[in-house]
Design brief:
The protein has three domains: about 70 residues, Orthogonal Bundle (Arc Repressor Mutant, subunit A), CATH 1.10.10.10; about 100 residues, Periplasmic binding protein-like II (D-Maltodextrin-Binding Protein, domain 2), CATH 3.40.190; about 100 residues, D-Maltodextrin-Binding Protein, domain 2 (3-Layer(aba) Sandwich), CATH 3.40.190. The chain is built from 13 helices and twelve strands. With about 300 residues, it is of the alpha/beta class.
Amino acid sequence: MNNALDSIDLHLIRVLHTVLTESNVSRAAMRLGSTQPAVSGALRRLRSLTGDELLVRSGNAMVPTAFGASLIEPTACILREAQRLLEGAGRFDAMRSTRQFRLAAADYMDPAFLPQLIATLKREAPLCGVDVLPLSATLDYRHALADGAVDAVLGNWLEPPQDLHLAPLLEDEIVCLVAADHPALRRGLDLAQYLQAEHVAPSPLRIAGEGVIDQHLHHLGRQRQVTVHCAFFNLIPGLVARSLLVLTTGRRFCQRYVDAGLAVRILPCPVPFPPLTYYLLWHARVHHDAAHRWLREHIRASAGQAPGLA
């Protein structure tokens, strides 16, 4: 008795996915570099194999059946995995690849970095997709890297995890951001005033523990007064502009809002902080994979093209 899998091949799965996503045989044929009769013949074969119409007419258009729609993501997954099999650890054909890259990144990095990276990836690999996920407390990035849910993680750590591959990307100076009418602009901001001030900080990025600013302060035996936490880092400068709150973070992030005309100013931080270092992390399982090597090279190159500190 023949195995049912013997009746279908990768080309037929590609035709199925294209027909279902295009909902049009002619457009599917153009995408596949084939002819309409050939695609129609493949669709008839697929209908016979599945026992379902897969694509039916609705008014003047064609739409997938319920069963057909349920096959869109599984066929996409099969095609992605087949492409990984063919690419192996050898050469990555960026112009033809349809891989979906998934990055987890902090939103307080150099504001020029991620736009530069995405533009480069879409130029060099136009058929690839890119998902940028927030590096938040709800994301177990170690597990996500291990099971392939995320391809690379970009963020900062006082002591980066040693169980993962890593490469430094960017360095930044720690500064303070205050409102344009903050008294510290007139009198200065010494250590005692800094520790007594009210601070705003992002919500912790790890399920347990503090951010790098408070970690370092505790190493120095100091503690600041964080009275406001905000999960949306890009909203914090607006909070600072309308209050006496102090934000402590990288100069690159702060400079964006000063240059945009927000009523905020940058002050030197009176605490001796080491440079804020951003890292690229990845798992050993993809260390030799051609597509991941290509991705990491472009991430490092985009970091190198980021403008210098203001």
